[in-house]
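Aim 2, interim progress: modelling of the zinc ion-bound target.
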Amino acid sequence: MKAVNQITVTGMVLAAAPVGEYDRRIVILTKERGKISAFARGARKPNSALVGVTSPFSFGEFTVYEGRTSYTLMSASISNYFQELRLDVEGAYYGFYFMELAGYYAREANDETELLKLLYQTFRALVNPNIPNRLIRYIYELKAVTVNGEGPQVFECICCRGKASELMFSVKRGGLVCSRCMGRVSDTRTLNPSTLYTLQYIISSSVEKLYTFVVTEEVLEELETVVTDYLAEYVGKHFKSLDILKTIIL
Ligand SMILES: [Zn+2]
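Predicted structure of the complex, ligand included:
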């Protein structure tokens, strides 16, 4: 009997690049196999069934042939193309950045169920006009580092585990610091109580409940500073898509 190495995975296309004259190589973040790369034969021929399904943002089920060293895409059934983003340049570039960050964290053969769920819910929020894109960005960034196990400690002092009332935030220590331990930490900053509550909510709530609130401009600005500084400290990569996004939202 001949083994058929064909599997169906649930995932989202993070990136697509042309190969040769008619083909494409895509990167898919999957629930079952983590981040995989798959070859899509003929995906650039105008009448190929693989044209649309291999575009970034496509979310659904992908049937791939598993070779010894690589995957080949056979077919796909897409449940959400996030088509709204084709008419929304700003939203689309937020999307490209979110995918680059997810791709940076995701590993092959790793369980990336949480990260995929986060990315999917973040795209749902991105096409929802009621949630500001800036807020979506900081929620997503903070939750992505948290899902990856590098989130800040925002419930107790990171040095002594104490729950004293005056807690300050230290990016270098990676979380809150109490008044007793403050002397040993050089980069403490005071947070607005609403900002601290927002950080706690983002870190502790389920992915499904992440995008259910908005904040004041003051809290949004503080959230921006804290999350941006935190990522600068703990994410060791420069994202090209973020540079492009910055030129668009200025
Ligand atoms: Zn302490």
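The mean pLDDT is 94. The helical segments are 89-105, 113-126, 133-147, 193-204, 217-234, 240-249.
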